[in-house]
Amino acid sequence: SSYREYLKLKGRFESLQRTQRNLLGEDLGPLNTKELEQLERQLDSSLKQVRSTKTQFMLDQLADLQNKEHMLVEANRSLTMKLEEINSRNHYRQSWEAGDQSMAYGGPQSAHSQGFFQPLECNPTLQIGPDYRYNAVASDQITATSQAQQVNGFLPGWML
């Protein structure tokens, strides 16, 4: 029984060696037409499988490269924006250092925004204690000025 198994395995081994030689294009002379056609179909099938595997591998590589390209484009865009921001800051810093104070951090100020900020009228002298001198005209002017400042949204001078 083991001798039969040995002979069977030996025959199978020789058959596989012959098939391998035939696939490599060797020892084709003793093959008939039918065996040659079968060998051709087997080669075609193997070639299609190899091409399919290679194509799939190349498509996977292409997809990976496209993903890398997309990530690099995004990184490039981000770095370009950072560079523009840094250049913008440097421009404002250089403008400021050069004495061009008309340029604010956010850009040039418009006439509208400059009109919004008005200097407050204040008396730089400090009076401690009550002022016992009473002047009716001056008192009316102070009251009118205080009311005008309250209307404009500013604090009256005496609260400063």
What's the arrangement of secondary structure elements?
Elements: H1 2-23, H2 33-97, E1 103-104, E2 107-108, H3 111-116, H4 136-152
Antiparallel strand pairs: 1-2
Keywords:
4 helices, 69% helix, mainly alpha, rod-shaped, single chain, 160 residues, two-stranded antiparallel sheet
Low-confidence stretches: 148-152
How far is it from the N-terminal to the C-terminal residue, by CA? 118 Å
Helix-strand sequence: HHEEHH
Q: Sum up the overall morphology in one term.
A: rod-shaped
Main sheet properties: 2 strands, antiparallel
Based on helices, strands and strand pairing, what is the structural class? Answer: mainly alpha
- Total DSSP E strands: 2
Beta-strand percentage? under 5%
Mean pLDDT: 77
* Rg for CA atoms: 48 Å
As a percent range, the share of helical residues equals: 55-70%
Strand order of the largest sheet: 1-2
How many H/I helical runs? 4
Protein name: Developmental protein SEPALLATA 2
Domain K-box: 1-89
GO cellular component, one term: nucleus
GO molecular function: DNA-binding transcription factor activity
